[in-house]
Recover the amino acids of this structure.
């Protein structure tokens, strides 16, 4: 019954509208004006209703703009925080190297690590963002704090490949410093050996002589090598095992203290001109 009443009421409205259209304007003018007067409040209400979502959309647009600006400022603040962290790490490295190279006038060049691993399974190297345009040269030592990362092997205009201390081609003069140093024995009086990489995760100290025994946990440090631009006292790692065997020299396994895959920043050591010149002339720098 309800649906029939709604249909009949709608038909009445339609019929009344058609009648107003058919009748001459002189007869239907008053009825039309009356109907129009009743429609005007409805029209005003509808305009106000449509205007409200428009203002709401304007406010939503302003909120979206503010949200975008806020995200941009957050991103800029994050970039500044990362830059501050990078500079803090570089300052920490410079301070860590100050003790080792303070008397030898080494210059330090900061570089970021671009690729922390090598694509070849036979090589152990990293790629840094320092090339010949910035002063990189083949053979320069690369360090993190006072720990040796490796040596520059190949250079390009913007990047360089660094041979790490675990690469089989890396060699450097080294000495194992005992945990307990006997009285009267200085660093320069100990007999050093040769550190070599093994293509694995460690290296070996070979041809190690002298009367000082090598013990597990001993620090392995570089000996002064002016010809190759290596200062004295940089860390190559620590002794993990010693095998005396039957030979004249013990086999000493050395584990680096660094995880090269987690490095983000390094320093390249540039020796002063007189450092190598003294070695070529046979004198001390």
């Amino acid at each position: 019954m309800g649906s029939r009443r709604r249909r009949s009421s709608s038909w009445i409205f339609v019929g009344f509208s058609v009648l107003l259209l058919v009748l001459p304007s002189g007869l239907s003018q008053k009825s039309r004006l009356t109907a129009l007067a009743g429609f005007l409040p409805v029209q005003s209400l509808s305009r106000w209703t449509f205007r409200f979502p428009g203002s709401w959309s304007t406010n939503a647009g302003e909120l979206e703009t503010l949200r975008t600006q806020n995200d941009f400022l957050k991103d800029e603040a994050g970039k500044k925080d990362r830059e501050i962290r990078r500079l803090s790490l570089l300052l920490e490295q410079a301070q860590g190297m100050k003790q080792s190279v303070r008397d030898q006038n080494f210059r330090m060049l900061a570089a970021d690590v671009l690729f922390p691993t090598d694509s070849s399974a036979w090589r152990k190297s990293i790629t840094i963002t320092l090339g010949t345009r910035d002063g990189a040269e083949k053979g320069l030592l690369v360090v993190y704090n006072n720990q040796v990362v490796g040596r520059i092997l190949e250079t390009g205009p913007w990047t360089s490949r660094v041979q790490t201390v675990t690469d089989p081609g890396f060699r450097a003069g080294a000495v194992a410093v005992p945990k307990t140093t006997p009285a009267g024995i200085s660093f320069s009086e100990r007999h050093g050996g040769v550190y070599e990489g093994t293509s694995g995760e460690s290296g070996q100290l070979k041809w190690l002589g002298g009367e000082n025994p090598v013990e597990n946990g001993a620090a392995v440090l570089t000996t002064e090598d002016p010809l190759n631009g290596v200062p004295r006292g940089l860390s190559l790692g620590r002794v993990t095992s010693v095998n005396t065997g039957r030979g004249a020299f013990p086999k000493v396994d050395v584990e680096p203290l660094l995880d090269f895959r987690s490095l983000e920043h390094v320093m390249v050591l540039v020796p002063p001109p007189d450092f190598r010149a003294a070695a070529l002339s046979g004198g001390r720098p």
Notes: Residues 28-102 form one domain. The longest strand covers residues 107-115. Residues 25-101 form the longest helix (77 residues). The chain has a mean pLDDT of 76.
